[in-house]
Amino acid sequence: MEKWGEQMKKGLLVLSTLLLLSMIFMTIYYQKKEPALTPEQALSLSSNTRTAPEKVPEETLQGTPVTDEIAYSLQQDKLQITYNNGQDWVVVPVDKSNLFSGEYNGNQQELIANSFILNEQYAAFLYWNNGVQLIYSTDKDSNWQESLITDQVPPIRYRKIAFLSDDFWYAVISYGRTMSSEGASIYITNDQGQSWRETNMPNTTRLVANGGFVTEQIGVMAYGTINPAEPEMHVTNDGGATWQKATFEMPSKYDGVFVTPNVPYQEEDHLALIMEQGPNGDYGNIQAKFISKDNGLTWEFVEEVEPDNEQNMD
Amino acid sequence: MSKTWTNVLRIFSFAIAFVFWGLQLACLVVQARYQAEYIDDRLFYLFNIIVTVALTVALLLTFKKRLNILIGSIAAFFIIFQFIQLQGIKDVTSISPDFNHVFSIKQNGASDATYYRSYYRLLGKPKEDLSYQIKGKGNIKWITNDIAVFTSQSETNGVQQFVGTYGARGDSVAYTYVSTQIRGTWKNDDTTVTASMDGVLITHGDQTTSFEWEQAKQFGTLTLVLTENNEAKWTIGLAEDFYYDQNTPDPPVGSIVLYQATMNKVEPVTLEYTGEA
What we know:
heterodimer, A: alpha+beta, 4-stranded antiparallel β-sheet, 22 strands, 36% strand, elongated, B: alpha+beta, 2 domains, 9-stranded antiparallel β-sheet, 5-stranded antiparallel β-sheet, transmembrane helix (chain B), membrane (chain B), transmembrane (chain B), transmembrane (chain A)
């Protein structure tokens, strides 16, 4: 009995020492452990490693495709484009940082959506450098031309350049944001950037969500980006001289769901547009289609659509 | 103390030590495998202290004087070390009044504070960066059993509110917008909230403030934080009895909860629906 007790004591002592030692190791491990990542951090980490593989041969550029053959690249700290799927690259003579100057919060790995045009016929890039400027080329030989759209505005937030035809180009910009209001302007040129004229604007200072023209006469401006409760879109039928607020006949179950209209497009004998959910939208991966038979003044709901299946001009 | 009682106590303390040690080990394994952490980093040291104390009690009951001095001093040293580590941790954690949820914000060094979602009460996974650093401690208030509002002073931007929500109202299959659900006038003794298409009007005592919807940030499907110049002013939450069916024209049923963003101690106010805006 006495002997057994002694053995117990010894065992207890050994076990306790082991526990203590393991706790010391656990503490060392615990303090050296990397903190866990939020889903967002994990995502940005994995996308970083994806776009920047460990060993890139210096000559190889990883382009961002625009069409099958055409792509651009922002690597090597400059803007380069290719028309033949990466075999030859042309440097666009523009300072990369100017393409992102103004209010922009992204990682500068891709151009800002709508801030450029890149197709078989045109290459055009909107940027800010002491004014809103456009650098463009109308031939693939890259004879670059620069055009000052305006030097009357501070650095820009929303930016869009679009060409409806050879002699109707327009730019939509917003600037000077304080909290939830800002200024916005539309500029049009009919002579391929030789001269730009500013149109009138809707009477609002809400944040621009979208803007553009369907035809040379019919254009829209959509507002509300932070937490819009309902769509606000203004329509012009005279090329931007006068504006009227559009009304949407929204089924009440979509109230507050579909809030951001895209720029409309022509469909048969009427206009159609796709309305997206707001920044907080979580009503599934669904958009809404509206049509208008009075050049954009009133819109009626047609159906829910899934993205990509519908023509979407914006 | 009789020998039997000594024995029971010894076995009991040793069992406690072993259970908590096992729990600690299991938690660490799970954390390594599933990218999780303790919901509050202090738990690790707390468990270490429990194991050490229980082990020490068991050993002191077993051995004679001479060895006990050694055991006691090793234990004391180890426990003091754990307490020092505890002091350095700035996690803010709170358990919901119904004990079903744990809300946790961690601030590691100079990086932005991070919100953790809890799993199995003890563990948590980082969910979202608050995008600001917390000055001081901040405080957590559960305005319902499933809404926790964290009010803090940020390093740069004054008072901020961050909300953790752990539920939904109604059948909640889809995402719903708080701003459209609370349209109407809500009242309590000296407080009125009027929510309309244009925004929210809050009258509290003799002060009236108006907010546009663009100044509102939604958290989950239950709360809005109203801001002014990037500083939080009020949080509006849907109370547990709130019900609104967006497929009918009927007004909402139940109440909403209004909670002021201030570092002073304030109680949330419950408001009843009184009619259209």
